[in-house]
Amino acid sequence: MSKVQVMEHPLIQHKMGFIRDKNTPTKTFRELVDEVGMLMAYEVTRDLDLEEVEVETPIQTTTAKRLSGKKICLVPILRAGLGMQESIHKLIPSARVGHIGLYRDPDTLQAIEYYAKFPGDIEERDIFVIDPMLATGASAVEAITAIKKRGGSKIRFICLIAAPEGVETLQKAHPDVDIYIAALDDRLDDHSYIVPGLGDAGDRLFGTK
């Protein structure tokens, strides 16, 4: 079964308190999500492969380390995933960026793909699937399934808040995908919203309803 890591770093938890607050304005909310995404990226990338390279310092030649291989592909789930993608991209500017668009059927609650675009060499890259919320898990499962169908295999999922039901669903569907979470909440309500949650991440990021 995949690893589930809840990040208890004080800075992450401090910022999550403001992210949850319904009185946090859109601009501040967007900035906080960006900051937490960057903080989470440090832990998610902890075990990336490195290779030794020779460089010239102002003093002498020495051996340094750089990321090895084809490196990383970031895949935000549209649209809310965009709120975390940019900050991670700042840390890893060489990463390629794919996108996947999904909408939830209001009757079945199933995620339906309407857009997907990935790098041609996605099978050679470490893939970070990004979405602020892991509620039912349907969107995450569908996004990762779409990536695997196109050859991707080394996949991690990053989100701000998850419900236990979503974590269980994702683990059952993709037991090889590790999950990184800033907060694991109590449950889903009757409308499949995370409780206590933070509301609709996409609406709060972009000022829509």
From TrEMBL:
Q: Which UniProt keywords apply?
A: Allosteric enzyme, Glycosyltransferase, GTP-binding, Magnesium, Nucleotide-binding, Transferase
What the entry lists under InterPro entries is as follows: PRTase-like (IPR029057), PRTase_dom (IPR000836), Upp_B (IPR034332), UPRT (IPR005765), UPRTase/APRTase (IPR050054)
Write out the pathway annotation from the protein's UniProt entry.
Pyrimidine metabolism; UMP biosynthesis via salvage pathway; UMP from uracil: step 1/1
In the UniProt record, does the keyword Nucleotide-binding occur?
Answer: yes
Q: Which cofactor does it need?
A: Mg(2+)
Enzyme category, top tier: transferase
Which residues are noted in the entry as uracil-binding? I194, G199, D200, A201
The protein's matches in CDD domains, at most eight in alphabetical order, are given as:
PRTases_typeI
GO biological processes: UMP salvage; uracil salvage
Any Gene Ontology CC annotation: cytoplasm
What residues does the Phosphoribosyltransferase domain cover? 6-208
Write down how the cofactor binds this protein. Answer: Binds 1 Mg(2+) ion per subunit. The magnesium is bound as Mg-PRPP.
Activity regulation summary: Allosterically activated by GTP.
Q: Catalyzes what?
A: UMP + diphosphate = 5-phospho-alpha-D-ribose 1-diphosphate + uracil
Enumerate the SUPFAM superfamilies for this protein: PRTase-like (SSF53271)
UniProt binding sites for 5-phospho-alpha-D-ribose 1-diphosphate: R79, R104, D131, P132, M133, L134, A135, T136, G137, A138, S139, D200
Gene Ontology molecular function, alphabetical: GTP binding; magnesium ion binding; uracil phosphoribosyltransferase activity
Enzyme Commission identifier(s): 2.4.2.9
Q: Which family does it belong to?
A: Belongs to the UPRTase family.
State the function annotated in the UniProt record. Catalyzes the conversion of uracil and 5-phospho-alpha-D-ribose 1-diphosphate (PRPP) to UMP and diphosphate.
NCBIfam families documented for this protein: PRK00129.1 (NF001097), upp (TIGR01091)
What is the protein named?
A: Uracil phosphoribosyltransferase
